[in-house]
Design a protein that fits this description.
The protein is α/β, with parallel strands linked by helices. The chain has 15 helices and 14 strands. It folds into two domains: 52-245 and 383-505, Alpha/Beta hydrolase fold, catalytic domain (Rossmann fold, 3-Layer(aba) Sandwich), CATH 3.40.50; 248-374, no CATH class. Strand 9 (205-210), helix 4 (212-228) and strand 10 form a beta-alpha-beta unit. The longest helix has 30 residues, at 2-31.
Amino acid sequence: MMRHLTPLLALLLPCLAFADETDSKKEEKKDAPEKTKEEKPKERAGTITLGGTEVKYVAQTGTIPVLKDDGGVKADVFYVYYAATGADGKRLATQPGSTRPITFCFNGGPGASAVWLHLGGLGPRRLDFPPDGLAPSTVLRVVDNPNSILDATDLVFVDPVATGLSRAAKGEKPEQFFGLDEDIAAVGEFVRLFTTREQRWGSPKHLLGESYGVTRVSGLAAYLQHQHGLFADGLMLMSGLTNFGTLRPGPGNDLPFILFLPTMTATAHYHKKLPADLMGDVDQAMAESRAFAEGEYVVALLKGAALPPDERRRVAEKLARFTGLSADLAEEQNLRIDPSFFRKALLRKEGKIIGRFDARVLGEDGEPGDPQPGYDPSFSNIVGGFASAVNAYVRGELGYESDHPYRVLNAGLPWKWSSFEGRYVSTDERLANAMRTNPKMRVLVLAGRRDLAVPEDSLRHSLSHLALPASVRKNITTERYDSGHMMYLLRSDAEKLRADLLRFLK
């Protein structure tokens, strides 16, 4: 019987093996991530004159995937990339021997798209603001930007997940990106893959962040070094912070009241509410305010309820001198003047409230009985113009079609701070580590004198406390501007910003 079965088994075994192999491949195919066809980036050619020289460029729009370990896609990150070209239309950065840098630009929020830096300050096209930047229309034209830095560096404007046109992939929860570490990892993967696809590993690379974008790129610099060996040549930190303990007071933390005071002085100076002897040079007034804040004021706050009444009154009178408020009001606030209270109180008699992002901007006070302002006129007077412009520009001039809304600002994201439970969020240690590990990396701080969202002394305090040797600390430089958070909206500040950035890049 076995003699008859043996030839039969010999015929069946290859068939059985083939069946097993087929089933195995079916299972592998079933478990493999579904491949989605990536869209091809759109490109448009452009020309702009910068510093008297004509610059040809190509504007590229598209998405870069954030990948899982198995190659599946977690999210698609939208970007706009401006690359300078030669007369032949070829990108300068790809030509043999090129040392042309590339700068990755991030706004903050969390939840802000890159439209603010893109069409406000640095791109080759910008919104047509009035020179003072105070009261633009709700609908603004997009015009050439003579203060762009495209002649010195290629530019990539990145919209983190859930902002702009960036979205989590189908079946993926967007909440997985809503955290400091999660966000840094996602934008870090964007930078890595973009650098690879565009063949920019040999280029000098810079990271520029505004507002929370400063927190982001401070951590991103360390992430890219440690994860991918990608070392940035420079960081540009605009209107931001690296330690939330400098911004948000709490039990035992009076530091924000100290750090906001010089900015309040600059604001009161602008609105002509300081005593005559302080109404000369604004920097001198701020210097006197800072000396008081870091000296007598610190001591008074440390004493708390033990502060004698006569000392308390003396400090209240000096607070009145440097803020334009009354000494009685300073005492009522327990010598701790919150910036929101200040925005409401300084021009209360005139029925005006002061802008948070730019304290030069005024709005009507519709709720005089409320101690806090109900809105920020320095934001509400620009958001409509930015939203209308970017939707028209991306879909029209740049030719990128999408039915998704462009999220200029996706406020209220459920952001997680899981690695900072029980302490203030900070990227100080990461920034210090990145600078020590890469002692050739330079840092440029850009701060507005009238920024009541993030005062310039916030980042100054953090940087002065970083654990850095003197040889590395000298890599930090600071430039200051007359307006506020988005200094590029004021024409004179935008011109200075271009000059400062060009000098840094060169």
